Amino acid sequence: MLILGVDCSSKQGSVAVVRDSKPLYQCVYDSNMTHSQNLLSLIENAVTICGINKKDIDLFAVTLGPGSFTGLRIGLALVKGMAIALNKPCVGVSSLAAMAETVDLDGVVIPCFDARRGQVYCRITDGDEVIADDDCIMAATLEDFVSSCKKDIYFVGDGKDVCYNKFKEYKNVKNHSALMPCIAYGACLMAENMPPQTHFELSPSYLRLSQAERELKEKNK
Fold first, then answer.
1. 94-117 residue pLDDT tens
2. Is 4 helix (H, G, I), strand (E, B) or coil?
3. Shortest CA distance to 25 belongs to which of 1, 43, 13?
4. What is the pTM of this model?
5. Is the dihedral of CA 65, 210, 141, 169 positive or negative?
6. How many CA atoms lie within 13 A of 166 on its CB side?
7. 37 near 93, Cβ under 8 Å?
8. For residues 179 and 118, what is the distance between their CA atoms, to the nearest angstrom?
């Protein structure tokens, strides 16, 4: 099975092509341009480098969130458009689960995105076990878990510094040099084992209200 994956959950986006669990192409980008300016050209580049045609793709994988509201909408719109145009199925996966899928660290892995104001989008995983599912919380809320965990803990993603700054004094919190993983690759690996969907079934998972919605809610109190 040939799968093309896309992730726009954070400032760093990624594109991947996987055939039968083997990566053919992985790219993680971070630039001053928006995902809408980068993504399409990177997909074209991936297809060219892999020597395939978009019509050869059996399945599209895309991250649904949590993460950047705008980024998620861009990724979803592009994947939906390709799926419609090529009459192909697609699969949507958790951005945090896809990140965890790409990480090979011996201990508890906490993939996280910086949600600003001291908050992070995160989940807690121990191998294939999900200890805590996707959530948007204050980073400090993790302290009870960190203090009681008997295993080494690794934070991964663009929110890792927020967490390391909070918990660096705990001996079980281990730093590492890994950069942002190719989340799109993790999305492809997850998609292989999931039932295919139509583009109608895909919708973003924000986990919290947008800033405009939060401000309106405060105004109406």
1. 999 999 999 989 999 999 999 999
2. strand
3. 43
4. 0.92
5. positive
6. 19
7. no
8. 21
Q: CA-based angle 85:194:86, to the nearest 5?
A: 10
Q: Which amino acid is located at 5 in the chain?
A: G
Determine the 3-state secondary structure of 159 from DSSP: coil
Q: Which residue has the tokens 């998609």?
A: 191
DSSP letter (8 states) at residue 173: B
- Angle between helix axes 69-86 and 35-50 (nearest 10 degrees) is 40
| Polymer length of the chain | 221
Q: What is the pLDDT of residues 187-217, one digit of tens each?
A: 999 999 999 999 999 999 999 865 554 555 5
What angle is formed at CA 217 by the lines to CA 216 and CA 221, rounded to 5 degrees? 115
Contact 29, 38 (CB under 8 A): yes
| Other CB atoms within 10 A of residue 220 CB | 6
- pLDDT tens column, 16-66: 999 999 999 999 998 666 788 789 899 999 999 999 999 999 999 999 999
Neighbours of 17 (CB within 10 A): 24
Distances (CA, A) of 140 to 1, 38, 49: 42, 34, 44
